[in-house]
Amino acid sequence: MSRKSKKKQRLKKQAPPPEQMLLDFLPADWHSAQTLCFQSNLYPLTTALMKRVTETDQVDCFSFDKTIAQRIGHKCSLLQEEQEGAPAFNTICDSELPANDYEAVLLPLSEQFSDELARELTLSAAYALQTGGTLTIASSRTKDYEYHKF
Predict the structure, then answer these.
(1) How far is the C-alpha of 76 from the C-alpha of 80, rounded, in Å?
(2) Interior angle at CA 140, CA 74 and CA 8, nearest 5
(3) What is the rounded distance in angstroms from the CA atom of residue 86 to the CA atom of residue 11?
(4) Range(s) of the domain holding residue 71
(5) Residue 112 located in a structural domain
(6) Residue 22's beta-bridge partner residues?
(7) How many domains does the chain contain in total?
């Protein structure tokens, strides 16, 4: 294995998952009246956000995987029972992102996604926003030229 390849692998291992990059990027006092979180794994992005927003806010968790959506829904239910003033939440499992008017959409893009899927998710997330809404993307994708043209 070449020296460059070894260095790339070390850097990949050191990079936090995109969900953690999103949480680190958002200020501690960040909140949104209606937020859509995309989740492709069980990383605690939605539950971490529920701890940051107010009880009048709405957090929707979207996943393509029914099992992941159910587990996150269960964790959010437990958090609502434990935490006083927890926000309302929905878990959505579908083949496409919902086309609601969200104030904020959080989109962690994993390296495992194909280039086409990453682009499709980004466009769908942009369509899910209300006018003036904020799309926040965390991604370590550096090779997809088409994606960077957005």
Answers:
(1) 6
(2) 120
(3) 37
(4) 16-148
(5) yes
(6) none
(7) 1
| Residue 4, in any domain of the structure | no
Residue with tokens 């529920």: 50
CATH code of the domain covering residue 34: 3.40.50.150
Q: What does the longest C-alpha to C-alpha distance in the chain come to? A: 54
Spatial separation of the C-alpha atoms in residues 55 and 131, rounded to whole Å = 23
Instruction: Give the model confidence (pLDDT) of 48-92 as tens digits.
Output: 888 888 888 999 999 999 999 999 999 999 988 888 878 889 899
Query: How do residues 21-39 score in pLDDT, each as one tens digit?
Result: 999 999 988 889 999 999 9
Q: What is the DSSP letter of 29?
A: T
Residue 136 to residues 1, 24, 26, 76, Cα–Cα distance (Å): 36, 12, 9, 22
The full DSSP string for 48-99 is HHHHHS-TT-EEEEEES-HHHHHHHHHHHHHHHHHSTTPPEEEEEE-SS---
**What are the DSSP calls for 120-144, one per residue?**
HHHHHHHHTEEEEEEEEEEE---S-
